[in-house]
Structure to design on (112 residues):
C-alpha cells in the first residue's frame, strides 16, 4: 500500500483502513478490543514489535493472511510512518529520536 499523507500514517490505522477497509472502531468492535487502548498505542507511538499477539492474530484473520505476513506489512508501514514523522515539521522529530525498538537492540554487559 503506497503511503498517503492524507491518511493517518500510524501502522495499525494504515493497515486496518488500507488493507481491511474498516475503521479502527469497527475493527475493535468486531474483534472485541477496547478502541481507547488501540488509540493509546497510537498516541504513544507504540512499536509494532510490542503489539499483543492476539491483536496481530485478529489482524491476520481479518485479512486472510498469516500473523508473520501481517507483522512484515506492519513493520513496512512503521518504517514509512517514522520516515514521514522525520520529515514532518509539525512533529519536529529527528532521526536520532527514532531509535530501534528495545527488543532489537543487543544487550550491553556491565563490567564490575
Amino acid at each position: 500500500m503506497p503511503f498517503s499523507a492524507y491518511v493517518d500514517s500510524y501502522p495499525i490505522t494504515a493497515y486496518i483502513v488500507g488493507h481491511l477497509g474498516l475503521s479502527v472502531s469497527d475493527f475493535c468492535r468486531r474483534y472485541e478490543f477496547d478502541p481507547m487502548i488501540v488509540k493509546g498505542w497510537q498516541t504513544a507511538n507504540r512499536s509494532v514489535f510490542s503489539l499483543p499477539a492476539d491483536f496481530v492474530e485478529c489482524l491476520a484473520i481479518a485479512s486472510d493472511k498469516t500473523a508473520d505476513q501481517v507483522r512484515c506489512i506492519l513493520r513496512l508501514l512503521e518504517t514509512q510512518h517514522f520516515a514521514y514523522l522525520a520529515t514532518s515539521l509539525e512533529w519536529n522529530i529527528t532521526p536520532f529520536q527514532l531509535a530501534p525498538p528495545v527488543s532489537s537492540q543487543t544487550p550491553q554487559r556491565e563490567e564490575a
About this structure: The mean pLDDT is 80.
